[in-house]
Structures are given as C-alpha cells and as structure tokens.
C-alpha cells in the first residue's frame, strides 16, 4: 500500500513538474521581431520610387476604389450588354460554324463578367445608372454601335453578315481596351479587384481581336 501511494505521489509530482516546465517555456517564448527593413513603393511612370518605413507601409493599407472605378464598371455594363445583343444575331443570320462558336464564347464570357461587375457594385453600394450606351460625360463610349449600325447588322445575312459582324465586334472590343486605358489614365484601377478585372478585359478582348482579324482576313481571301 505504501509503495502504491508513493508511486501515485511520484506520478502526480512528475505531471506537475512537466506542466510547470511547459508553461514556463510557453511564457518565456520570445515574440517574433517586427519587420525593420524599409519597403520600396514603386512610383508612377516618370516619378521616382519612395522608400517607406514598415509603419508607413502599414498605414497605407489596401488602395480604395475611386470614382473612375465606378464609372468604368457602370460603363462596362452597357458595353457588355451591347456585345451580347450583337452575338444574339448570329445563329439566325449565318451558317458559319466558326463565327457561331466565337459568338457563343463571347456571350458566355460577357455574361460571366457582368456578374463580376454587378457583385462589385453591390458590395460597394454603387447604384446602377440608367444610361443607354453613353459615358458619364455624355459622349458615346468607345466602340459602341449606333442604333442604325445595330439595325444594319441585324438585317444582314450570309457572307455580308459575317464580314459586318467581325468588323463591328473588332471595333467594339477595341473600344473596351480603350476604356481600360482611360481607366488607368483617370487614376483608377488601383483597387486590386478593379485592376484584376480590367487586366482580364484587356487580355481577353485582345486575344479575341487578333482571332477576329485573322477570321476576317481568311474570309476576304
């Protein structure tokens, strides 16, 4: 009985010593040192870089969206809407399978991007405007077709439609790329989500422009 009691006492004492030792190790573990290296902030084109302390860099935080970002997203809704209208003429106006596949890809891509735009606006409580194909300065947005040009595209068929569709959509896509350039020129595109979306538009539409130019050259030949 005495031996059993002694073993129990030793067991409890051992656990207590280990627990105190672990607590002491935990309490005495040093905090990770704060970063002390300076951070270089790249300057805008033509402007020098700036060296920031870690404290200054922390105060900057993530760039916020600006009015130019809102206008870009709102205008892109109208721009994409018209592109979807244009792709809607394809199935009834041409039997060219390559153009039909191209139009279907464009429709899906533009609809997906509209969802991204709508979510971005909703998250920032930006109301959608009721404009009809016009920028916020009252001028027509780059690449947009007039009502008469849309009517002419809808009325065309066969080879004439193919040529007109490719020419119109190339112009329309080039307008979207121009809108991206204007976004950055106006001081927008610094917020990460806007920047990512704008670069996607620029890249995706640039690829499709090259594809359509080749298709147009093939049909002209």
From TrEMBL:
InterPro entries assigned: DUF305_CopM-like, Ferritin-like
Keyword Cytoplasm part of the UniProt annotation: no
Region annotation Disordered: where it falls in the sequence: 29-58
Alphabetical keyword list: Signal
PROSITE patterns listed in its UniProt record: PROKAR_LIPOPROTEIN (PS51257)
Pfam families named in the record: DUF305 (PF03713)
Signal peptide stretch: 1-29
Annotated protein name in UniProt: DUF305 domain-containing protein
Positions of the DUF305 domain: 69-216
Taxonomy, superkingdom: Bacteria
């Amino acid at each position: 009985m005495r031996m059993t009691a002694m073993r129990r006492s030793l067991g409890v004492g051992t656990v207590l010593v280990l627990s105190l030792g672990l607590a002491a190790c935990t309490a005495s573990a040093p905090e990770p040192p704060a970063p002390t290296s300076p951070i270089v902030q790249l300057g805008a084109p033509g402007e020098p870089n700036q060296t920031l302390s870690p404290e200054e860099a922390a105060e900057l935080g993530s760039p916020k969206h600006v009015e130019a970002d809102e206008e870009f997203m709102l205008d892109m809704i109208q721009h994409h809407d018209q592109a979807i209208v244009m792709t809607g003429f394809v199935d009834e106006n041409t039997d060219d399978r390559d153009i039909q596949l191209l139009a279907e890809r464009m429709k899906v891509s533009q609809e997906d991007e509209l969802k991204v735009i709508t979510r971005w606006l909703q998250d920032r409580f930006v109301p959608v405007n009721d404009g009809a194909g016009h920028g916020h300065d009252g001028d027509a947005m780059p690449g947009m077709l007039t009502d008469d040009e849309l009517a002419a595209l809808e009325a065309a068929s066969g080879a004439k439609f193919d040529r007109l569709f490719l020419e119109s959509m190339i112009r329309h896509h080039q307008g979207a790329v121009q809108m991206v350039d204007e976004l950055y020129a106006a001081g927008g595109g610094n917020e990460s989500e806007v920047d990512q979306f704008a670069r996607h538009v620029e890249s995706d539409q640039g690829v499709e422009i090259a594809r359509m130019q080749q298709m147009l050259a093939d049909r002209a030949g």
